[in-house]
Structure formats: structure tokens, C-alpha cells
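Title: Prediction job returns without error message
Component: structure pipeline
Severity: low
Priority: P3
Assignee: unassigned

Description:
Job completed but the reporter wants confirmation the result is attached to the right record. Sequence as submitted:
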Amino acid sequence: MTEYLIPTAEAQAELVEKRSRFIGHVWPVDSEEEARSYIEATKKKHYDARHNCWCYRLKEGGVERYSDDGEPQGTAGQPMLNVFQREDVTNVCCVVTRYFGGVLRGASGLVRAYTQSAKDALDAAGISVVRRWVEVAVTCPYSYFERVRQEGEACGGVPGETDYAADVTLHLLLPEEQVDSFSARLTELTAGGIAPVVLGEDFRAVPRR
């Protein structure tokens, strides 16, 4: 089973500490060329900043790169990269731009600020799970709706659109290995009265809720 995590979208977050302004930016990427294009574009945009520190991770080949861009060694790029390693997020590029505010922070203060900036940007971007998903639809009485949704989420499913009629129909994306388990739970819950209908399957990124 292939499964990995990526940023859901491009996002930015800003942190101000001791008059220094840290702007964290995260992008989903598929190649080193794409990552470096974002890095260069950010350097041009923030040409007047003291530092544009960066890192990226790629699933293909296990590539990991980072730069402190003039900050003391080990205080910026590596701590930023560590954020994505801890979260197990790949195919990601991050740049943290620093506008110096005139107050020296020391190594530990820089590590905290760059770590927090990268984490804030990732939180703003969100995380998606890339894997094979099976889409199912479950039609049930309204009295069962919340329980069906809970059972789906307990199996790692992600709720989708809901259709309201005489009964309610819930669409779910389930990990492919959880479809049988989910079906068995519904059979047990409703004495065989409710069963999921498989609509299709796809290998794609789905935001983690």
C-alpha cells in the first residue's frame, strides 16, 4: 500500500518576535526544479529581506535540501526541515523570510522562530493524504446518519457530500483496505438493513480532517 502526506495547498503565515518579522511560505511541489523556482521567486519578491531561508523534501529519491541563507549554521534551514520530517510531510517546499528588527535573538531564539514559522505555514496549508481511495455511498434513515458518519471516520474515511431526501445519502472516501470492515460494521449496526454502494476508486490526494 502506497500512502504519503503532502501539503494541501500553498499557504503563508506571519510571525513577529522581538521586532523581527518572519514570513513562512509553504508550497506542494513535485520536483527540485519546481521547489527552486519558488525559492528564487521568493528571493526576488523579498529582495530587501535580511534572510530567505528554505528547505524542501521530495518523495522521489528521498531528496532533502535546506539553506540557512546567512543565519548562523543550524538555526534556520535544518529546524525548518525538521518540522516536515516530524509531520512526515513530503513533496513540500518552504521558505521563511526574515526582516530583521534590530534585536539579536541568539541561536536558540532563531531555531524557535524558524521552527514556528514553518509549522504555522504548514498548518495554514493543511495536510492531504495521497493514496488509493474508494468512494462509497450509504443511504439510510436520518436516525442512523450520525452513526454511519462516525463509523466511516473510525475506518479512516473522509465524509463528502450529503444528499437529503426521504432518506439521507452520505458519500464517503474510504481507504481501500477498510471497505470490507466498514461494510461489516454497518451490517452489524443495522442487522443487514444498510450496505455501502461502491461508486469507484482513485489514487489521489484528499485533505486530512
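Comment from assignee: result matches the submitted record. The chain has a mean pLDDT of 93.
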